[in-house]
Amino acid sequence: MLGSRTDLHIFDAGSVNGTRYCNEILLPYGRLFRGAMGPQFLFMDDNAPCHRTVTVEELLESEDIEHIDWSARSLDLNPVKHVRNLLGRPVAELTALPLR
């Protein structure tokens, strides 16, 4: 798993709150990658509400996991938005042929 990627984690049901995010994502994956990467490990998430709870902040601090603090509405700092934009523009520029 390290050196490549993790399996996709699918939340079975319900909404994701800070506690669930800690238990299902941060504890298993955050610890694993921090241990493998060492002091240079920097955790990146986004401003999703479940990422910004007191529970999450306390866990990151107690596990000594440094993370990026995103400023509010920092869409241009989120690489996923750029990828969607890059892929979406060529698709949007395609002209659909009329059906006959």
TrEMBL record:
InterPro entries: RNaseH_sf (IPR036397). One of its GO terms (molecular function) is nucleic acid binding. It comes from the Eukaryota. This is Tc1-like transposase DDE domain-containing protein.
